[in-house]
Write a structure and sequence with these properties.
Number of helices: 11
Strand content: 15-25%
Distance between the termini: 24 Å
Strand order of the largest sheet: 3-2-1-4-5-6-11
Number of strands: 14
Radius of gyration: 19 Å
CATH architecture of one domain: 3-Layer(aba) Sandwich
Length: 355
Amino acid sequence: MSAQGTLPGGVLPGKYRHIELEPPLGQPGCPRGCDRLLFSHREQRLVPETQGSAFPGTELKAELPLWILFEELDVLDEAALRGLFGKHRFSAVMHFAGLKAVGESVQQPLEYYKVNLTGTIRLLEAMNAHGVRNIVFSSSATVYGDPAYLPLDEKHPVGGCTNPYGKSKYFIEEMIRDLCKAEKGWNAVLLRYFNPIGAHESGDIGEDPQGIPNNLMPYVAQVAVGRREFLSVFGNDYDTVDGTGVRDYIHIVDLAKGHITALKKLKENCGCKIYNLGTGTGYSVLQMVKAMEKASGREIKYKIVARREGDVATCYADPGLAAQELGWKAAFGLNKMCEDLWRWQMQNPMGFSKN
């Protein structure tokens, strides 16, 4: 199993509350890069990471402040999880670990169900056994399936997922909701991500997919920097502004801030809450290509190919509930997302391993 990104932070002297932060697969540099944000939320963190990451443990440990503990383990390893919880005192878990690629999930459904579902069950069992009953879960807008209406709010029906990846997220949401109903004292915030992109504005931290990128914007950036010849656009016959798929893209820093507000919500003994994290604006694939051409000053070649199984035409959020209950709202627009992504790509043209 591979993963990307982590969320380190500071330590409050004399306080020993630990938060386990599991890195996501396929999410661009997920909250790890948001240093100003993270060091303002001062609790000690222990940061597990799984094999094959774009942020290998040795590189991550070299960059972390000395007071941040780091442990590398596999979320499927039940003994390792129980050992981890037995060794440290945690107050909450932020659960990102899992496989994430729509197309790949269609080809490898059993692997997705094994890793995402079994991994979550083992994690929840370890938490329960050690009295840790607060969790923030990295869910996805894919749980909505093909939208019945737009923008998507949290009341939209879920479960009509078009691919195994989305189904795994939906099943995990249901699992956590049932747990919160059955077991007293459990609190959960389920964050339905839309499409995280961008990088830390320093250019030091960004998304470095292992192999061929499954996400649109890392692929676009690699074409712009010369690592790949052209972008394959999956379908141009959707009922959208230019025939290509429309998605709600959110800056990774805004996404990270959403997680901090979610942690604060857990302190209210909130039960199980669900929030969309998106901007509320949708952009097509070709609009994203043009935005990256503007940010990079380079032409980005693309070819139209057949639709990809499991994709929907249009998907964008109504993020109003997060604004109302969490006080969270996306601050960065499309130009900023592309500028930060391009800065990272230019500073790391061949990714972390070749830098």
